[in-house]
Write a structure and sequence with these properties.
Elements lengths: L3 E9 L2 E8 L8 E9 L4 H5 L12 E2 L3 E9 L1 H7 L6 E3 L9 H7 L8 E4 L12 H6 L3 E4 L5 H12 L11 E4 L3 H8 L11 E4 L3
Parallel strand pairs: 7-8, 9-10
Antiparallel strand pairs: 1-2, 1-4, 3-5, 3-10, 5-6
Length: about 200
């Protein structure tokens, strides 16, 4: 079994470097995930630039909270409680929205009668022009989401596994881990001539 792992570390605003870490010991109640892909979230460019939200950023930071991977090791207690074994794929699914008012403006009319319109992204205090008559006449529920827990993740995993929706087609750019800075800049729209929909990092690349 591997004893080391790599990660791109944000050591200061707009400065990243590759570092190697020792893998932790896996106890009876622990699990270790081998990451296969990491999505770049719409919030990552702000973190990369050192933008403060609730206080100063605690540099150094290992970014990347949209992850998909397989269980590399797992303690007996966790295995019995969750009914999973080494090699099973797990996903930290996060709905990635545009973060731009136009996304909300385009999305609301697509909601069916008595449907739900979920807004999990931050719009940086930009104003959206929404046809609120649709909310009334279609009896639409508008739900903001700041985070999620297992009650949301498990149904999302089930939906992804069903194969009903071609989620892989949403990925427009796959970069190796060493190009994490370029991936963040792509997601931020800073690379001229590129129009990314979803950017991911491949740790094995």
């Amino acid at each position: 079994m591997k004893t080391k792992c790599r990660a791109m570390v944000l050591v200061s605003p707009e400065t990243m470097e590759m570092r190697t870490f020792d893998l932790p010991e896996t106890g009876e109640e622990d699990g270790l995930l081998e990451v296969e892909l990491v999505g770049v979230c719409g919030s990552d460019p702000g973190i990369f630039r050192g933008k403060q939200t609730f206080g100063p950023r605690p540099f150094p930071i290992i970014m990347g909270h949209e992850i998909v991977g397989r269980i590399a090791a797992m303690g007996r207690g966790v295995r019995e409680r969750h009914g999973v074994v080494e090699g099973d794929r797990m996903a930290d699914v996060v709905m990635d929205v545009s973060g731009h008012p136009s996304g909300a403006e385009l999305g609301l009319p697509l909601v069916g009668r008595r449907g739900t319109f979920i807004l999990p992204g931050l719009y940086k205090h930009q104003k959206a022009s929404l046809d609120l008559d649709l909310v009334v006449t279609k009896e639409i529920r508008v739900q903001g989401v700041y985070s999620h827990d297992s009650r949301a993740v498990r149904p999302a995993i089930k939906m992804a596994r069903s194969g009903k929706y071609p989620f892989e087609e949403l990925i427009t750019h796959t970069l190796p881990l060493a190009q994490a800075e370029r991936a963040v800049r792509l997601a931020a729209g800073e690379i001229e001539g590129e129009s990314p929909l979803k950017v991911v990092l491949d740790p094995k690349g």
